[in-house]
Amino acid sequence: MLFILGGARSGKSTYAEQKAHELSDKMSAHVLYIATAIAFDEDMKDRIKKHQAARPNHWHTIEQFKDFNLLEVKEDFKQSSIILLDCMTLMVTNLLLQYEVDFDHVKRTVIDEIEQDILKEVEDLLSICKQHGKELIIVSNEVGLGVVPAYRLGNIFRDIAGRINQRLAKEADEVFFLASGLPLKLK
C-alpha cells in the first residue's frame, strides 16, 4: 500500500495518479479509481470535472465512499490490479455528515461510535484489497498542520481524520508527504 498525504492543492492527487500510471505500465495492469467526492455545489462539480479530465480514459472509476465490503462483486474491481482512492478525508467527511446529530451538543460516546463506524469502512477497504491482492494507493489530507478549528464539528473531523491517517500510515508500505508538488518520503 502507498499512502500519499499533504495539504490542499499540494499536488497529492497528481502524484498519486503518476504513481498509479507507473505501476500500471510496469505491471501491465488496470487501474480502478475510487472517487469519494460528492458534487454538493458548483465549485465541487468543477473540481470533480477537473479530476476526471486529468485521469486516463482507460482507467475504471467508481464513485463511492462507503460499503467497501461490496467491492469484490463489482466487475471493475475484479478487473483491476491497482486501486487508487482519492480521497480519504472526503470519505471521512461524507461518512461523518451522514449521521443526523447535533455535533455541537452530541455526547462523546456517540462520537466514539461514529468514529468506530468510519474506521470499519477503512478496515473493510484495506481488507478487501489485501484479500484480492490489489495494489492500493490512498490519498488523504494532512489535517494537523493548520489552526485548531473554531467549531466542534471541525475538531471532531480533524481528530477522526488524523487518527485514520495514522492508521493508514502504519499499514502502508510507503508514505509520501506532498508540499508544493514535491514529494517527501516519510516511510
TrEMBL record:
Q: Name one GO biological process term.
A: cobalamin biosynthetic process
One molecular function GO term is: GTP binding
In its UniProt entry, the species of origin is given as: Zhenhengia yiwuensis
Q: Do you know which Pfam families this protein is assigned to?
A: CobU
Q: Which residues bind GTP?
A: 6-13, 35-37, 63, 86
Q: What is this protein called?
A: Adenosylcobinamide kinase
- Judged by the first EC level, this protein's enzyme class is transferase
Q: In which pathway does it act?
A: Cofactor biosynthesis; adenosylcobalamin biosynthesis; adenosylcobalamin from cob(II)yrinate a,c-diamide: step 6/7; Cofactor biosynthesis; adenosylcobalamin biosynthesis; adenosylcobalamin from cob(II)yrinate a,c-diamide: step 5/7
Write out the similarity annotation. Answer: Belongs to the CobU/CobP family.
Gene3D superfamilies in UniProt: P-loop containing nucleotide triphosphate hydrolases
Give the protein's function: Catalyzes ATP-dependent phosphorylation of adenosylcobinamide and addition of GMP to adenosylcobinamide phosphate.
Q: Which gene encodes it?
A: cobU
Active site residues per record:
51 (gmp-histidine intermediate)
Q: What's the Enzyme Commission number for this chain?
A: 2.7.1.156, 2.7.7.62
Which residues does UniProt call coiled coil?
Answer: none
Reaction equation(s) it catalyzes: adenosylcob(III)inamide phosphate + GTP + H(+) = adenosylcob(III)inamide-GDP + diphosphate; adenosylcob(III)inamide + ATP = adenosylcob(III)inamide phosphate + ADP + H(+); adenosylcob(III)inamide + GTP = adenosylcob(III)inamide phosphate + GDP + H(+)
| The keyword tRNA processing belongs to this UniProt entry's keyword annotation | no
Question: NCBIfam families under this entry?
Answer: PRK05800.1
> InterPro entries per the record?
CobU/CobP, P-loop_NTPase
Nucleotide-binding among the record's keywords? yes
Print the keywords alphabetically. Answer: ATP-binding, Cobalamin biosynthesis, GTP-binding, Kinase, Nucleotide-binding, Nucleotidyltransferase, Transferase
Which SUPFAM superfamilies did the record assign? P-loop containing nucleoside triphosphate hydrolases (SSF52540)
Checking CDD domains in the record gives: CobU
